[in-house]
Amino acid sequence: MTSRIRSVRLEDEVYNALKAMSERPYTPSWHIQEALRQYLAGKAPKKEIAPKKPEKRFTPPTPQEAGNYFLLRGSLDAVNESDKFMDFYASKNWMVGKNKMKDWKAAIRNWMRSSNEKSQRANQPSAKQRVGDAIHGSTANDWG
């Protein structure tokens, strides 16, 4: 008999708690209230200031665009360099490593930078020439 009385009391307590919760007015949290105030004032909520821009898909440059950019960057041999650049990346399906190229102008800048470094290395004497210079005190090319 006690168990039945106990269960009835428990059910009554749960029922009273649920009834009190349903009678209590709903108060939204402060950030929902703030968003609602901004909306009613004609302003967009802070989180939705601007919609996301759709991502631009990469489109390879035309040979003219690449050539013009090489000229703009001060390349002395823009036509040949742009042809080399276009052929190289077209053969690689416009991939840089394992990733699709995102910015062809940045790739051209890197192309020019690396070609400048290669030309500077080509103008320096080789290790063989440097050893000869150290031994003989003159340039290795003068050995005759």
Write a concise synopsis of the structure shown.
Helices cover 60% and strands 3% of the residues.
Description:
By secondary structure, the protein is an all-alpha fold. The chain has a domain at 63-123. It has helices at 2-23, 30-40, 63-72, 78-91, 104-123, 127-136; strands at residues 95-96, 99-100. A two-stranded antiparallel ribbon has the order 1-2. β1 and β2 form a beta hairpin.
- Count the beta strands: 2
Outline the low-pLDDT stretches: none
Largest sheet report: 2 strands, antiparallel
Can you give the helix content as a percent range? 55-70%
Shape: elongated
- Structural class from helices and strands? mainly alpha
Oligomer: single chain
As a percent range, the share of strand residues is: under 5%
* First-to-last CA distance: 122 Å
Order of helices and strands: HHHHEEHH
- Spatial strand order of the main sheet: 1-2
The overall pLDDT, averaged over residues, is 77
Helix count equals 6
Cα radius of gyration in angstroms: 37 Å
